[in-house]
Amino acid sequence: MIEELLPVDVMSAEAFDDDGDIHLFAEERAAVADAVPRRRREFSTVRRCARTALGELGIPPVPLPPGRHRAPQWPAGVVGSMTHCSGYRAAAVARASRLHAVGIDAEEGAPLPGTLLDLVALPAERDLVERLGAQSDAVPWDRLLFSCKEAVYKVWFPLTQRMLGFDGAQIEIDSGGSFSARFLVPPPQAAGNPVPRLTGRWMHRDGFILTAIALPLPVNESPVRATHTRAPSRTFLGTENR
């Protein structure tokens, strides 16, 4: 499903269950040595997805240990993102010569629990969720908002190496399947240029919400692309960026 949200330069792979017999490199095993079994399974499966996607770029299997703030460490010259939720794991990668950053997120397609929306949403975003909910109750708009913010963070962090509060960017959601984020803090820099706004795509299907952002190089930086075909303020984002 995730590849439908991504441009052709991005390779992706996904899984809907876990295989207990997945090879991990020593650095990866050490990262989850003390983790509970569920965490080890999702960690392993999402790295299998990542290595599958990297293989589509012609990159052989390499260790992908979590680094600072648990963000995955990609091979040199690669940008990427991982995500997992109950019943779904995915990874997306691209050459850094094609894109500045990629951010994907997957969430259970159900409303946020309790009062979590009040913790993660700006007043204007809570109004947005209310308006969208009045138009249609087919999508858990609060959960979609949360997922959009997670995808934004996964683009933000590789560019800044800094945390981002939930109040650091304001999300706008279009019911047709797109969204945007406007930074309310000094924006990230890409190739020396500020990136004040990000745009992405979303879907709600088969019990999941998926969001994706691909930050392209400016046209004057991008090489000619070969065509191919293929089937609250101190509350921080990035809970699944690992």
From TrEMBL:
Pfam families: 4PPT_N, ACPS. The lineage of its organism: Bacteria, Bacillati, Actinomycetota, Actinomycetes, Kitasatosporales. Coiled coil: none annotated. It comes from the Bacteria. InterPro entries: 4-PPantetheinyl_Trfase_dom, 4-PPantetheinyl_Trfase_dom_sf, 4PPT_N, Enbac_synth_compD-like. Residues 27-94 form the 4'-phosphopantetheinyl transferase N-terminal domain. This is 4'-phosphopantetheinyl transferase superfamily protein. SUPFAM superfamilies: 4'-phosphopantetheinyl transferase (SSF56214). One of its GO terms (molecular function) is transferase activity. The keyword Cell membrane does not apply. Keywords: Transferase. Residues 101-187 form the 4'-phosphopantetheinyl transferase domain.
